[in-house]
Amino acid sequence: MTRGTSFGEDWTMTPVDRFGVALSGRALHRHAAFEGKRIGDFGCGYHATFTRSVLARVQHATLIDVSLDDELHRNAKVTVIEGSLVDALPEVPSASLDVVMCMSVLEHLWAPDLALAEFHRILAPGGVALLGVPTWFGKRWLELSAFRLNLSPPAEMDDHKNYYDPRDLWPMLVRAGFLPSHITCRRFKFGLGTFAACRTAPASATDPATDSGVPA
């Protein structure tokens, strides 16, 4: 079943949601510079909260989600593509973006490998894909928050298709085309999530190795 609304479209984020978004934002800033970059925020949520926070600094932003705020449609620095992620990604030109972000989205997809391969295609030489997904350890606490404590939207948890420890995500990134020497993949959010930074080789140089290890 294809979801009909974007994250944050039909409810107000709870303190738990806002804390998770803040932790994701810290990880994004730690692994990428946004000044003057062409960025893509895929599965960005209805309000595209993170992209709005850096929009004044970037060259251009491409946003994909099921639906997006009308104000984003009217912004000259933003290209909006509405629809399911796997169907919409082919509309983004190859080698056109410097930074690709996809946070808390892959766990909602039946075909995450297709999305990862598209991220690799879309990145310009020297670009970076920044990905965040919940771990199996995080599954327990996310479901507690949603189903027992009512601190998160239950529909979001019911839409999850999978969870990813670093050992699960790392080989998927290699199959998508990223070199092991250009992949950093480790736990974050106190072990509740896995974060990956995957770089493409520069056009005229070879990047130094970043992190080819796979944490337990």
Descriptive report:
The longest helix is centred in the N-terminal third of the chain and has 17 residues. The chain is an alpha/beta fold and 216 residues long. The chain has a seven-stranded mixed β-sheet with strand order 3-2-1-4-5-7-6, with helices on both faces. Helix content is 32%, strand content 22%. About 3% of the residues have low confidence. Strand 4, helix 5 and strand 5 form a beta-alpha-beta unit.
Q: Report the average pLDDT across residues.
A: 91
Structural class by sheet pairing and helices: alpha/beta
β-strand number? 7
Rounded radius of gyration (Å): 16 Å
Poorly predicted runs are 206-212
Number of helices: 8
Oligomer: single chain
Question: Order of SSEs, N→C?
Answer: HEHEHEHEHEHHHEE
Shape: globular
Q: Kindly state the percentage of residues in helix.
A: 25-40%
Note the main sheet. 7 strands, mixed
Strand content: 15-25%
Q: Enumerate the strands of the largest sheet in spatial order, edge to edge or round the barrel.
A: 3-2-1-4-5-7-6
Report, as a whole number of angstroms, the end-to-end distance. 33 Å
